Amino acid sequence: MKNVRIVFMGTPEFAVATLGSLLMNGLNVVAVVTAPDKPAGRGRKLTKSAVSIFAEYSCLPVLQPRNLKDPEFIQTLRDLNADIFIVVAFRMLPGEIWKIPPSGTINLHASLLPHYRGAAPVNHVIINGESFTGVTTFLIDDKIDTGNILLREGVQIFPFENAGDLHDRLMKLGARLVIRTLKAIYEDHIIPMPQSAFLRPGEVPETAPKIFPENCIINWHKETRAIHNLIRGLSPYPGARSFLNQGNRKFVFKIFESRPEKEEHQLNPGSIVSDGKNYLKIACNNGFINIITLQLEGRDKMNITEFMRGFNISDYTISATGT
Question: Hey, what long-range contacts does 169-173 have (CB within 8 A, 24 or more apart)?
Answer without folding.
Answer: 170/14, 170/110, 170/122, 170/133, 170/134, 170/135, 171/13, 171/14, 171/17, 171/110, 172/17, 173/134, 173/135
